[in-house]
Amino acid sequence: MFVIFVVQILLIYFKHVNLFTMKHLKILYFKLLICAFYLLNIGIMNAQNVKKDSLQKKIQEFKLKPNFQKDTTYINMLYHYGKDFGYYNLDSLLLLANESLKLSKEINYTKGESQGLIILGNYYADNSKKEKALELFIEALSKAEEINDIKLILRAKSSLAIGYTYLEDYTEALKQYYKSIEIAKENNEDAWLSSMYISITVIYSIQKEYKECIYFLTKSMELNKKIGNERMTAITLTNLTSTYINDNNIEKASKTIDEAIQILEKLQIDDWLTFAYELKGNIYLAKEDYKSALIWFKKSEVKYEHIAIERYKIPLYNGIAKAHLGLKEYKQTEKYALNALALSKKFESLDQRDDILKTLYLLKKNTNKTAKALIYLEELKAISDSINIKNNKKELRILKSKFAFEQEKEKYLLENEKKIAQQKIYFYVALIIIIAFSMIIFILKKNNKTKEKLNKKLTHKTEELKKNETFLKNANDTKSKLFSIIAHDLKGPINSFKGIFELLELGQINTEEFMNLAPKLGENMNGISFTLNNLLTWGQTQVNGIVTNPENIDVNKIATQNKNLLSKIAEQKSITVINNISTSSFALADKDQVSILMRNLMSNALKFTPKNGTITIGTTDNNDCWEIYIKDTGIGLSNEALSKIFKTNETFTTYGTNNEKGTGLGLLLCKEMAENNNGKIRVESTLNKGTCFYFTLPKAI
């Protein structure tokens, strides 16, 4: 609440200045500007009223529920309303406090009783009944401690510290604040810790210990940033401004108050905006910029219209009077100075009364009303002794509180040292236990690592055995396949050659008959050569792996070479081979592997295409790769054949249109060659219509 920090409103003593005359036009402009600020504040007040009305509406709606008086939620709502908006109407605050206490006692709700006692204490504090307020705060603290509600204990202690401050018992006030700081730290209540750091500066400000004020307010700012509390940040900045003004650091005060006002206006916190606007006015008053000072004082006055605590208006009215005096607006000077004097007498407050009387004295002196000026001067002298006596008493209390606080601080440090010593013992015991456990964990981890290494070795050996087993099995399969092909596909043709030459040698056939067999022998020789080439290449890939050496190659050139190589077979079957590959088709691949791939596919096409058929070779541009196709008008492939031709675990072969026989290795070799060159191979086929093989190669760089 605003009451917590009102004691921080510091006096800015009036300075004698050379007053200047103003033109009527400037005065009219200045008054219009003040009106504009009044209109601006109406919008902000409406927003604050919306928040208040919303809580009022919730309370009224809650009253419609049966037995709402026995519901702790309702009692808590009364407390929050009184805490946040009680300063608008002190009579309402009294009613809320009494109702909250009555309902809490009826249902034995201790927390509600403590809350009710706090807002009732605030009511008496705001009505200058300090002793009664202190009694209520002590009782509220007792109730809060009874249920061990940390937040409520902190609030009660804060209120109690305020009560001691009103009674000028600064030693007890400091004790409450320091104990609250300790509790907040122990319970990680950062928001409350920040609040206590702000509150304790009230005492240090009274004692003019401004370095201590700045120290605690800086710690509060650090906490506010940590927890992201904008409201507390604004309050801290406002109190920093008050401290800087009191320490005559107007430049820093101007910076902090602007930042505070920006946040307070954004959050629409009226009670603190009232104080902030007043501080802003005091800054301009210190700079002798009376027009600007008056603008901000008027903004504060608008806010005060909705706050019921009149004694807070004393320093404001005195500030407005000084600003009008500086502007030579004597009628307004007298109005506000007399209002400030009346309130000062009503609340029996000597604070600032000497400054108010000085303002009235200067007013009458400047308007040549010497007799009236003399009356105010005599009244000022009459209360000077009382003020000096009071100030002397206050100084004595401050000295006493400083001495008592030092004793309390020493006691606190001794207790802390004992706690630290005890904590050290606990620490060393814990450290020994941790070291022992660490050694056990280290030994266990070492054993586990040894076990893991052995397991890894065993796993590695097992994997190697599996790989060797797979390799041996594959090698065995390859060997079996090679021997099978040699036995069936090479042995027969070679034996035929051997038989013919034996017949020739024995003279059972003559030279003419042998020459008639020569073309057939040539075909068989070509077949044996082609088969042997595939066999050796595939065998190499299976046993040792094959090394791929990619380079920029001319696909059209390779296709032409293989077309020429197989031209004789094409002529024998009257098959037309068409090369549609673009001359710009350059790929990044192994030249020899692509040649083997293409030769096998073209050979197959020739084998399964009947006489007078057509084979077409071409390319398609697929952005980052070339797709090469070899299409024939042959006998096509069945679905069974399509499902087997690329399988590595079995060889599949059929006879060509002229009973040409293959090993079944050609297409497996094609698949491996395509994949080795970062490509893929696929096939499309229709029985009795033809087949088309496709394979891709990456484009040349």
Write the layout of secondary structure elements.
Elements lengths: L23 H40 L8 H14 L4 H17 L3 H17 L3 H18 L2 H17 L3 H17 L3 H17 L3 H18 L2 H17 L3 H18 L2 H17 L3 H15 L8 H14 L3 H17 L6 H14 L3 H137 L4 H33 L7 E4 H11 L1 H6 L3 E4 L6 E4 L1 H17 L6 E9 L2 E8 L6 H6 L21 H11 L4 E6 L3 E9 L3
Parallel strand pairs: 2-4
Antiparallel strand pairs: 1-3, 4-5, 5-7, 6-7
Helix pairs in contact: 1-2, 1-13, 2-3, 2-4, 3-4, 4-5, 4-6, 5-6, 6-7, 6-8, 7-8, 7-17, 8-9, 8-10, 9-10, 10-11, 10-12, 11-12, 12-13, 12-14, 13-14, 14-15, 14-16, 15-16, 16-17, 17-18, 18-23, 19-21, 21-23
Fill in the keyword field for this structure.
single chain; 5-stranded mixed sheet; two-stranded antiparallel sheet; 701 residues; alpha+beta
Walkthrough of the structure:
- By secondary structure, this protein is α+β, with helices and mostly antiparallel strands.
- Helices cover 72% and strands 6% of the residues.
- It has helices spanning 24-63, 72-85, 90-106, 110-126, 130-147, 150-166, 170-186, 190-206, 210-227, 230-246, 250-267, 270-286, 290-304, 313-326, 330-346, 353-366, 370-506, 511-543, 555-565, 567-572, 591-607, 639-644, 666-676; strands at residues 551-554, 576-579, 586-589, 614-622, 625-632, 681-686, 690-698.
- The strands form two sheets. A five-stranded mixed β-sheet has the order 2-4-5-7-6. A two-stranded antiparallel sheet has the order 1-3.
- A hairpin with a 2-residue loop joins strand 4 (614-622) and strand 5 (625-632).
- It is elongated, with a radius of gyration of 52 Å.
- It starts with 23 loop residues before the first helix and ends with a strand.
- Mean pLDDT is 77; it is low at 1-48.
